[in-house]
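Example record

One chain of 408 residues, shown exactly as stored in the release files.
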Amino acid sequence: MAGNTPYHVPMSHLDLTPTAAQLGLGMGTEVVYDKRVDVSNWTLPPYNRWSFQHVQQMTRTCRVARAATPQPFELDLRDLAGLEPMLECTWTDAFAVVHEGRLVFEQYRNGMQPDTLHLMMSCSKSMTSTLVGIAHESGHLSLNANVDRYLPELAKSALADASIQNLLDMQVGVLWNEDYEDLEGHWRDLEVASGWREPYEGYALPLNQLDYMKTLTDREGAHGTAFHYQSVLTDVLGLCLERALGERFDAAFARLVWQPMGAEYDLVSIIDQGGYPAFEGGFNCSLRDFARFGWMIASGGQAMNGTQVVPGQWLDACRFPAGRLTEIFARSEYAELMPGHAYHNCWWVRDPRRGVLMALGIHGQLLYIDPERRFVAAKFSSQPAHVDAELSLMQFEALDALSKEMPT
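Predicted structure tokens for this chain:
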């Protein structure tokens, strides 16, 4: 896959994955009516082809300030033309590869530019995890403490006696449905409560996350016994984190992670009417900052200037989960698609033996981190389906192969 020819790869098969411009999508009076993107359709295909790069025009957001002095990548650009079929077929908006700390491949598609902030969906969970690790090391947050220690408002909910570690591992016995095929699932209500969309007809629940969480009173099993992917749990985690630190997330994340990491651009997050960030999936950033974050994780939590940002012990724990976690994952609905994996501390562990991590988000968002091979791949996409197993596997397998083949 690698070579010394120019790294910009000509796009092909445009009829398979048309761009937002080709589809005529956008905002404004000059856009044909049925092609206009608005608050009612922006998360749906084909409108997401445009909207994932314009989230600040769709929702309320808060700002995580960039570093005063960014830490740039050293460039060592290479030809990775063998990736073109995967990039084309998976509705890629931007893709970067970092190897040995150098940016070796960078490509923008579908109108995205280096300064564009793209929605990362549930990769936001893994970013939130880094601040949890920092707060845990500093003694502000206990992983063994229950939710109601930090959020007594939830004392009567099914979340109250779940531990912070239960939230991190998605092992909470609360009845909550994230089946994207079920349009009456709880995930639809969370989209409204967390600020993603306006209330739909008949919606009668709160318009902020904390009050919404109070309504989750039905249990489904015991905490700590089964893996069920429930995005609301990361929102609970984020609010516990804010309460434990005594500081809003945007300020804390900027001060403790984003700025020490050397971010080139701001990060923004969707917020609800109470000002609470959508920790579960509402973060947006540039491609290089996404890759820069991945390289920090691959480097044991160190920024490119050598500053220790995230505790190395925390990242080791993320990378090498206990055998019990892989056993629990093997009994989950994800086991067939992702055999041998685990989910721990808001990371998908692709290879628990070697410690290969992935941050994943619906519609094709992906951060692939192989610290042993000093390899990171960052990918933003706007796939039509929430989850497409075939495209996911295509991405995983292509990056597995590329990480092995990268020349030193």
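Notes: The first strand starts at residue 61 and ends at 64.
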